[in-house]
Write a structure and sequence with these properties.
mainly beta; Jelly Rolls; 25 strands; single chain; 8-stranded mixed β-sheet; 7-stranded antiparallel β-sheet
């Protein structure tokens, strides 16, 4: 587990490209038959990737957590961006198709990841935050009907179409984990897909002092990239982000991007407020 510390916006103003990337960008999350995790001191989020190929991978607490098991004091959300897979949690096997998700509450002890095919392995993107109570496990189905008691379909009001092709920001936000659909202590997760011809996400942009966020960009060919914009609204910086790379966004930072083509990204948030619309919008004319 890699540990990343927090930093002040006063310090970030003086970072060069190398330092910005070291502090905020995670260049590789998916390794064959490994679970790669990053522990950020910003709101204590842990995020990472699990890519089982031909064998099962068990989620361990690691020395960094000083816990008997990973979810002793935490909750976990995941979205599969690879081939079909299975997550077994305390003996219950959840089949997780591509673009489907899973929420596991505090107290879940044994968590194992598997792929259905070695040729097309699952890629489970994970987000975890501290938790104070246990909520029920839920499988989140993006485009399928519920089959099991633990299944949740994404509600129509949580599939939100925004923007226009004329503004290059026609996109659909799919909200997976949030109050009213999948209950959690603080974790929220979702996935945004940009339509062909659109490249801008989260624009007009915003900040939200009461929670932080991590973006995972994917569905990008090898020669494509996203210019991810960060920093205070009047002191913006940028990072060049490639396929399946993640960016840490502190509460004081904007988080928006413009790609060399359309793409998809997963957002994961932790903090004290689960009101999705609790954000401080930044007017386009005020960006610097």
């Amino acid at each position: 587990m890699e540990v990343r510390t927090a930093c002040s916006p006063q310090d970030e103003k003086h970072y060069d490209t190398k330092r910005l990337r070291e502090e905020f960008l995670v260049e590789k999350l998916f390794f064959e038959n490994e679970i790669k995790l990053v522990y950020s001191h910003i709101d204590r989020i842990i995020f990472g990737g699990a890519m089982p190929v031909g064998r099962a991978l068990k989620l361990e607490a690691g020395d960094e957590l000083r816990a008997n098991y990973f979810l002793e004091r935490r909750e976990l959300g995941l979205i599969n961006i690879g081939g079909p897979g299975v997550v077994t949690a305390d003996g219950v096997a959840y089949e997780i198709g591509s673009r489907d998700g899973l929420y596991l509450g505090q107290g879940t002890k044994d968590i194992v990841f598997e792929s259905e095919s070695e040729e097309n392995p699952a890629k489970f993107y994970l987000c975890s935050g501290p938790a104070h109570r246990s909520y029920p496990a839920k499988r989140i189905l993006k485009d399928k009907k519920a089959e099991q008691p633990y299944d949740v379909e994404i509600l129509p009001e949580n599939k939100k179409e925004l923007g226009t092709l004329e503004d290059s920001n026609h996109r659909t936000i799919n909200k997976y984990i949030l109050p009213g659909q999948v209950e959690s202590c603080q974790l929220e997760m979702g996935m945004t897909h940009l339509e062909p011809g659109s490249v801008w996400n989260t624009m007009p942009c915003h900040t939200h002092d009461r929670r932080m966020e991590v973006y995972l960009y994917f569905d990008l060919p090898e020669d494509a990239f996203v210019m991810h914009y960060m920093g205070e609204p009047q002191e913006t910086r940028h990072l060049v982000v490639r396929n399946e790379q993640a960016v840490i966004s502190p509460s004081w930072s904007i988080h928006a991007g413009s790609g060399s083509r359309n793409y998809t990204f997963i957002w994961g948030m932790v903090g004290e407020n689960q009101d999705f619309d609790d954000m401080d919008e930044v007017l386009m004319k005020d960006l610097r």
